[in-house]
Design a protein that fits this description.
Elements (H helix, E strand, L loop, with lengths): L15 H14 L3 H16 L2
């Protein structure tokens, strides 16, 4: 299997309700989960960067 050089695979656990809402957002917007996760993490980094 080919691996993308700019990505890493992670494993974590999240709140079931939040995950369900996140999946629904992905389906409704047709934006892949990975791209939504990237955006969410970028927003958090900006929020907490001082």
């Amino acid at each position: 299997m080919a691996r993308l050089k700019t990505r890493i695979q992670i494993s974590n656990s999240v709140d079931k309700v939040i995950w369900g809402q996140f999946q629904k957002l992905s389906e409704q917007t047709r934006i892949p989960l990975a791209r939504l996760l990237d955006e969410a993490m970028e927003d958090l980094l900006k929020k907490y960067q001082k």
